[in-house]
Design a protein that fits this description.
Elements (H helix, E strand, L loop, with lengths): L5 H4 L6 E5 L4 H12 L3 E5 L3 H11 L4 E4 L7 H14 L5 E4 L14 H28 L7 E6 L13 H20 L5 E8 L8 H14 L10 H10 L10 E4 L10
Parallel strand pairs: 1-2, 1-4, 2-3, 4-5, 5-6, 6-7
Bound molecules: NADP nicotinamide-adenine-dinucleotide phosphate (NAP).
């Protein structure tokens, strides 16, 4: 039996990773942790100047490259995939993180909002993963799998009291898509898992947390919102040797909040 020490067991050093939506919020938390731990991290988001500036900032501590693209469109995904293929022959880890929310009461929920949420949160994961399969397969093996890590939400596990019904639908779809892909990848040496965050401070949650952070923390079993290291930690685990036998899982990272019936 071989022995593995922590620095080997949890290592992501020299892994090539793509984090979509890596320019801010949860994606940036994940990208920064991966860069700090020696991975070569590509980040992608729509606003090119921001994406570039964040990559330059992270490059001061490690290796980070920006590929700006709108992955909610087929053209944007094609651009991203081609740009990555020009620079890499393989991809160890794909973090499908970019996501959007749309708040409106159910009776007034616009079709445009529904489409925006579903196109980015679900369809882009489906097709980006499909398009990046050749690169993932190039790094895949049953002992050292390549990893697809989808960022879902606890809103896909239980019904939020917020007016964001399409978002909850999209995140439940992300969780089930994760399980479907884990099975479809059988024998290929690629794991597919989802992480379901609870509330973290980001542009997406800023106004909600500005109004309700104390109440949200009050009902959370851990009495706090998510913070730096919480999302990076779970992604490092899943991307390292330590997580290589975890497959098709939906892992809440929420202090236990998904266990509550309402927020
Ligand atoms: N924050 C939370 O509490 C929380 C809880 C549960 C789940 N989540 C999930 O975590 C993920 C990240 O959320 P966040 O809170 O960090 O949101 P955020 O602060 O709004 O960040 C979203 C990121 O995605 C990028 N993005 C948005 N639309 C895009 C598109 N069409 N193509 C490419 N990139 C795009 C954004 O950059 P550009 O605007 O420049 O494109 C940004 O980098 C999402 O999937 C979200 O649903 C968040």
């Amino acid at each position: 039996m071989s022995s593995l020490h922590n620095n080997e067991l949890f290592s992501v050093k020299d892994k090539t990773v793509l984090v979509t939506g890596g320019s801010r919020g949860i994606g940036l938390m994940i990208a920064r942790t991966l860069v700090e731990n020696g991975a070569k991290v590509y980040i992608s988001s729509r606003k090119a100047a921001v994406c570039q500036a964040v990559a330059e900032e992270l490059s001061k501590i490690g290796n980070c490259i920006a590929i700006p693209a709108d992955i909610s469109t087929a053209e944007g995904r094609a651009y991203l995939v081609n740009a990555l293929k020009e620079q890499e022959t393989g991809l160890d880890v794909l973090v499908n993180n970019a996501g959007a929310n749309w708040g409106a009461p159910f009776k007034d929920y616009p079709e445009s909002g529904y489409d925006k949420v579903m196109d980015l949160n679900v369809k882009s994961i489906f097709f980006l993963t499909q398009d990046l399969l050749p690169l993932l397969l190039a790094k895949a093996s049953l002992e050292q799998p390549a990893n697809v890590i989808n960022i879902g939400s606890i809103d896909g596990m239980r019904v939020s009291t917020l007016d964001n019904s399409a978002y909850g639908v999209s995140k439940a779809a992300v969780h089930h898509l994760t399980k479907i892909l884990a099975v479809k990848m059988q024998g290929k040496g690629i794991t597919v898992n989802a992480v379901a965050p609870g509330p973290f401070r980001s542009k997406m949650t800023e106004s909600m947390l500005d109004a309700f952070q104390k109440q949200v923390e009050g009902v959370n079993p851990m009495k706090r919102i998510g913070m730096d290291g919480d999302m990076g930690g779970i992604v490092v685990f899943l991307a390292s040797r330590a997580g290589s036998y975890v497959n098709g899982a939906v892992i809440p990272v929420d202090g236990g909040m998904h266990l509550l019936s309402m927020v």
